[in-house]
Specification:
The protein is α/β, with parallel strands linked by helices. The protein is 35% helix and 24% strand. The protein is built from seven helices and seven strands. The longest helix is centred in the first third of the chain and has 16 residues, at 21-36. The chain is globular and about 40 Å long. It starts with a helix and ends with a strand.
Length: 207
Amino acid sequence: MDQNSIIKSYKRVSSIYDYTFGRVFKPGQKTSIEKMNCSSDDQVLEIGIGTGSSLKYYPSDTKVVGIDISPDMLNLANKKIVKEKILNKNIAMMNGEDLFFDDNTFDKVVAMYVISVTHNPKKLISEMKRVCKEDGDIFIVNHFSCDTDNIFIKTFEKALMPVSKVIGWKPYFPFSEFNSYANLDVREISKVNIFDYWNIIHASNNK
């Protein structure tokens, strides 16, 4: 997935995102943020903020910065912040693979439904670790293909790979591939969303 393909893909779906994908992903957003256990002292970075549908689930006194590469999605996120008067939440256009923030800036860094969309997942994980404080928390929500998956699911995911640029994400993304370069100190992996198809990974940033 190259950046232009991702931007074009989200431009196509931005106007209907909250009524389609957003409804499917909502349980994962709520559960992940609950697991983050944010406080008023926390500085949080959410990579791939999209339309900003997750912002309302954070405590009002938690400072959150949400970034995304899609101007169309960010425009909708900004409208939510203004209309719903969401406090202590800011958004910016930025590539998660090339963050502008200093090292050790955030207490918690989260990427929901982003890893299988980004062009270079290895670089994204590296940047998440860099800007997260030592012993801070890293959360990832994503679907990973596993050896134990139903053969029909794996076959279907592989069949969709040639059109990944059109649909905007990589349908077949083996966890073994991700785990080979992520090198995360994983504390918990739990299932979420319809059919438990997605994983919530909680890791400690032990640099």
